[in-house]
Amino acid sequence: xxxxxxxxxxxxxxxxxxxxxxxxxxxxxxxxxxxxxxxxxxxxxxxxxxxxxxxxxxxxxxxxxxxxxxxxxxxxxxxxxxxxxxxxxxxxxxxxxxxxxxxxxxxxxxxxxxxxxxxxxxxxxxxxxxxxxxxxxxxxxxxxxxxxxxxxxxxxxxxxxxxxxxxxxxxxxxxxxxxxxxxxxxxxxxxxxxxxxxxxxxxxxxxxxxxxxxxxxxxxxxxxxxxxxxxxxxxxxxxxxxxxxxx
Length: 247
Known about the structure:
Layout: E1 8-12, H1 17-28, E2 32-37, H2 40-54, E3 58-62, H3 68-82, E4 87-90, H4 106-134, E5 137-144, H5 155-175, E6 179-186, H6 201-206, H7 221-228, E7 239-242
Parallel strand pairs: 1-2, 1-4, 2-3, 4-5, 5-6, 6-7
């Protein structure tokens, strides 16, 4: 993991949950990290923690991944500060609850697709093209078991995540051989979002995984580090399941 020292790593949705754990893991290994999420105060708090604990550079950036222009602004901000990006982790996601499929509004559907698919497309296109120009890099998309095992309770999200899997493979072809693009297919993790799951959802999920439990956010880190480094040098367009053995 010494190869991450002084690398520039951008993590969207990096201020909490799995994203925060990724930021801390990269910083612990000497990377310069960009904490990108909607609320600047939350990003700044994580950046301060990184500087205090690991003594590396940390840049907090507030942006809305669903906004095309905001994605471009994030890219320009990062390149203006560091001059390059070595690793991009498209982690930001959204899966709002809805009463029924019939009651899914156009606005909700569009927002879910914008956050989980459109934003990652724009960031990957913009950053990946520059990575090719600069000689290489790694892009890691955080997918979901919903992409292949969709549930009625999260169908727009599942469709967007399925699209994200397609983007990973397509961009891998577009940006190879110097830039690798891969997907970590996540199962149920106990982030702060899990606190708002309806009653019985956690128990239902845990009954469907071979390990019998939901994941701790720190348990996503190993897969992300694998794809971010030369440990996965012959992997691109790949999907790695980190879902506890979802049935």
